[in-house]
Structure formats: C-alpha cells, structure tokens
UniProtKB/TrEMBL annotation:
Residues 1-186 form the Selenoprotein P N-terminal domain. Residues 144-157 have a biased composition (Basic residues). It is found in: Secreted. GO terms for biological process: selenium compound metabolic process. Pfam families: SelP_N. Residues 144-164 are annotated as: Disordered. This is Selenoprotein P N-terminal domain-containing protein. Keywords: Glycoprotein, Secreted, Selenocysteine, Signal. One of its GO terms (molecular function) is selenium binding. GO terms for cellular component: extracellular region.
Length: 190
C-alpha cells in the first residue's frame, strides 16, 4: 500500500539530507473511504498525517484536478511543481522521488529569494471539532497550473522547517526557521 511506503521514501530522502519534506495523505470523500479512514491511518507511516475530508466540503481532489493515487509536489512557496498520476505515482518507481528531489534541490519556481533575514517561529494548527476531520487553512490558494505564463509579485514566508512530529494539516508543532523576503516568481511552464 502506498501509505506505508511513504515512510520509506521520507526516510530515504532524509538520509540524502532532504530533511524538511512534508507528506500528507488525503483520503477520498466517498462513504466507503470515510468508513475505512482508521484502517488507512493505521497503515500510514508514523508521522505522516491522514486528512479525512468532510462530506459537506468541496472535494479536494476535484479542486486540485487530481485523483486519489496522485502525488502533488509543492515547493517551499506553496506552488505546484509536479502532478504525478498513475501509473507513475507508484512509489516503487522513482518518479515521485525524482520530483521531490528536483523541487527541493532545484530552482523549479524560479524564486529570486536572496535574504539573510531569519526569524524563528512555532506553528500550530487547530483540530476541527468533527470526529476524524481536520480543517485545512491553505496559506496560498493561488496555485500554479501548468500552462499559465505570468509574473507574481507577492510576499512569501519560506519555511525551512525541521519537522518534529507530524506534517500539515494535523501539525502538533513545527519549530522552524523562516526567511521573509519580497521576491518574484517568473513562470515559464508550471
């Protein structure tokens, strides 16, 4: 199962010094998937949260134009760098790993951030009162899609986190070093 293999990938990336990579499993919204939430959560690698959508909210997979076995890779600014679907998203293949490495090590978003201003912060999120559901508060709802050609000038918080326990959205606590800088994204083919 993909959920269990994500921990192996996370650990492999960490051994290669890619230490602030966050994983999140998004369970489908249908009734059968919701009924099997706890089984999925048990199979997921330790420290990788499983997000259960509420049946009353818009389906995340529809919003992201993806499917349940897709991997969406985002950069530090929250921009989509890779959308990997089946069969390429199977973790025994190297496509997901290569996409994460390219995003982590490369300048995929053409970010022109150059700053030495560092601040430390603790980030926490609140759990929803609904059972098995956590509210997602996206920091940046302006996702890049693959064929847009435009410039963005906006303020970003670059999070170079050393993750303590779990990742978004069910974060218990992240101690991070944050660089704040006005910078520009030059989109070519996102």
């Amino acid at each position: 199962m993909q959920a269990a293999k994500m921990g192996v990938l996370r650990d492999k990336l960490a051994r290669g010094n890619l230490t602030s990579v966050a994983f999140l499993i998004v369970n489908e919204q249908d009734a059968l998937s919701r009924a099997m939430y706890w089984q999925l959560k048990r199979r997921a690698a330790e420290g990788i949260p499983v997000y259960q959508q509420s049946p009353l909210q818009d389906d995340i997979w529809d919003t992201l134009q993806g499917d349940k076995d897709d991997f969406l890779v985002y950069d530090r600014c929250g921009y989509l760098t890779f959308h990997i679907g089946l069969p390429y998203s199977f973790l025994h293949l190297r496509y997901v790993e290569a996409a994460i490495q390219a995003t982590y090590l490369g300048n995929i978003c053409n970010c022109t951030l150059n700053s030495t201003q560092l601040t430390s912060s603790n980030v926490t999120t609140e759990r929803s009162s609904e059972q098995n559901t956590t509210a997602i508060e996206p920091q940046n709802t302006n996702l890049h899609h693959h064929h847009h050609h435009h410039h963005h000038h906006h303020y970003h918080h670059h999070d170079y986190s050393q993750i303590r326990s779990t990742q978004n959205p069910a974060i218990t606590q992240i101690t991070s070093t944050t660089t704040e800088q006005e910078h520009t994204h030059h989109d070519s083919e996102h």
